[in-house]
Amino acid sequence: MHGIDFIQDLAVIMLIAGIVTVLFHRLKQPVVLGYIVAGVIIGPHTPPFALVRDEPTINVLAELGVVFLLFSLGLEFSLRKLARVGVTAVVAALAEIILMIWIGYMIGGLFGWKPMDALFLGAILAISSTTIIVKALDELRMKRERFAQLIYGILIVEDILAIGMIALLSGIALAGSASAGHVLATVGKLALFIVVALMVGLLIVPRLLGYVARFNSNEMLLITVLGLCFGFCLVVVRLDYSIALGAFVIGAIMAESRQLRTIERLIEPIRDMFSAIFFVAIGLLLDPKALVAYAGPIAVITAAVVVGKVLSCGLGAFVAGQDGRTAMRVGMGLAQIGEFSFIIASLGVTLKVTSGFLYPIAVAVSAFTTFLTPYLIRLSDPLSAGIAAVLPERVTRVFALYTTWLRSIQPQGDRAELARIVRRSVLQVLVNFALVAAIFLAGGYVAVKFAPTLGALMTDERLRNAAVWGAALIVSLPFLVAAYRKLGALSLLLAELGVKPELAGQYTDRARRVVAEIIPIAALVVIMLLIAALSASILPPAELLVLVLSLAAGLVALLWRWFVKLHARLQIALRETLADEREHD
Questions:
Q1: What's the predicted TM-score (pTM) here?
Q2: Do residues 439 and 473 make contact, with C-beta atoms less than 8 angstroms apart?
Q3: In angstroms, rounded to a whole number, what is the distance separating the alpha carbons of residues 552 and 329?
């Protein structure tokens, strides 16, 4: 009978959701809100009786909805889009998240809630809804406008920070608190994982998808995509990260494949089905009585979301150099919460660290702010014009001068090209360091995970550690050589700019050579010290360490050109993957 109950529940969910969403579409309201209302209608808290019997299975399907929702958000991720609006996106997203976490925590304290409830409330309010905003902008036919592109960039940064926030909240919830060292370590490990996963994934996954696409079978491509998605999510869960992180990252990797349009088309109906179940499941948990009981907090929090996000995102965009009208449109467009808020609220429930009232409050606030989103976007232009008319002329002139000044100090011509070269060089050094750090951390994991097997082959623990650490070093050599070469080129440039002939006189060339030689060596020493700290669990004793380093130095001397060619091939492959061409089929 279990199977029949499940089919009955699925039929009820889809029928009621279909009827309600058609009604909401006719009323020109967001479909997501219709799914939540459908969940309330068929939920256990709505009389006369619950229409859903097998709720645990529905919750499992809702988890699949989270996977496909985050996977689809990853498919919309673009490194190039983020680069184009990078400064504005980062400034506005950071301003929004910091301010909204603080506002949420203060509101929780105001109502006398326990600290964990207040902290989770702040996190719930911090992230805007990509799904709702994209849908609203599409319905308003504004998704091609400049402010919409800025919003998309902010949403990308928010999504990345939200993944980190989920990891931090999990750690805080389990430990009860978090020190500054713990926070930095968590953020560092998360950043390292994302960088390494993106680099390795971009080298492998698009080529694999390209190979499968040659068979001209949508079925094969879909099964491969789903296999990669769930397989990567499993790896991420094994590494003690959330399944949401895995789904987002693998989606971002596939976003750089030439089969992106085909993948989006194939995934769309599956995503729509499971995400509908996810939002209906949210409605199932919503108790109308709780909404009445907490009407005051819901009203206060809804107002705080709208005002706080308009101020934080709008001011962040303005500070980053956008004009007042664009900044207002950005702020009004981001004034809601959605899918990530539900995920964070669910996390608190799953970990049993938040009170029962927090989840329905989050859903209610999301529903109200979702309803307001299209109207706020339409109101942004009249409101910005009204504010401009009311402001004193002197204030308006100061704002205009600030925007003009900020744009005038942007590097131009040769300075812009120089800044671009420096940024690219530093980024490449950091990426190579991240790959090296990941290799040594993987070595430490292997040494612990397969200790019995390695112990049978090599009984002396010191020799065993030396072998594992040495193997990690050998695998890392191409990336260390690349980092050294890039640091050398960067140091030459910095030496030319930093050592002026009018100061050094006849010693100019000699001083520049000294600077150019010291910088890469010093940086490489710092990198090796950091690696030693990261791999402390498998670091061999001093005498064996000297032996391993000597052997590595000999390999570098013998295979220098081969290491350079290998890294160059990897770099070319990565650039080809990130090329602008796309298959629009």
A1: 0.75
A2: no
A3: 57
